[in-house]
Each structure stands twice: as structure tokens, then as C-alpha cells.
Amino acid sequence: LWPAPSPASPTPTSNRALAxxxxxxxxxxxxxxxxxxxxxxxxxxxxxxGRERFVIARKRD
Length: 61
Prior knowledge:
By secondary structure, the protein is an alpha+beta fold. It is built from 2 helices and 2 strands, in the order ααββ. It has a two-stranded antiparallel ribbon.
């Protein structure tokens, strides 16, 4: 629905969001470590708009 931003000229907000995660994400390493002890791989990804999401996958043996 929304026009995609051109990769040649990203907005300053998207650059800042990708360069430095939000301060609330400082609570997340503990959750990531806990998921890894349970046998999951968890990583935090941010898209070009700065929205963050967990990508969780079961570890392969």
C-alpha cells in the first residue's frame, strides 16, 4: 500500500534506527540468553522502518 523508500536515499530516521537500537531493547539480551538455554536461536532484526522483531528458530542438532 505504501510506496517503498528508495534504497539510494534512506530517511535519516531509518539510518538512526538501524545504527542504534532503541533503549528498551537493552532488556532483551536476558530473554535471548534464556531462549538459547532452552535450545532456540534468537536474534533481533530491524527492518528499514526501525521496527524490531525477534526471529526465533529451534537449534539444529
